[in-house]
Amino acid sequence: MKREDYITWDQYFMGIALLSAERSKDNNTQVGACIVDKNNKILSVGYNGMPTGCNDDEMPWDREGEFLNTKYAFVCHAELNAILNYNGGSLEGATLYVTLFPCNECAKAIIQKGIKEVVYVSDKYADSPSTIASKKMLEMAGVSVRRFEPKGQELIIDL
Question: What's the confidence (pLDDT) of residue 151?
């Protein structure tokens, strides 16, 4: 008889996104993303961080102050990193699992790459102009968006 208490595909892929977020060196917001195809194969992962080759010990991580002294001028978001990390061709029809609802800039990349579904955990910036614009574009482009629904199952990974 097979085991019945295994995790769902949504739990598995969101778990990968949550684990990827743990790689982020941002001291305020850690975001992770996982892109999968229609056959439930992982295509790519990403997390928010500085671009490759930019020493994150020398880059600013502040949230406030002069724009060039904040992380916002430099950090690559998890969704964009996952898209850029993929070297296998088309992402047409893929699903993106992400821990934070995508901003408008990431929404543009999601749409342009043909990703057709976004599954997210948090929408803490729902009222921000960036998120409002993101939702408008995703809807116009026919990208399905849904909030991840946890099943109350706890999984502990002790590394």
Answer: 79
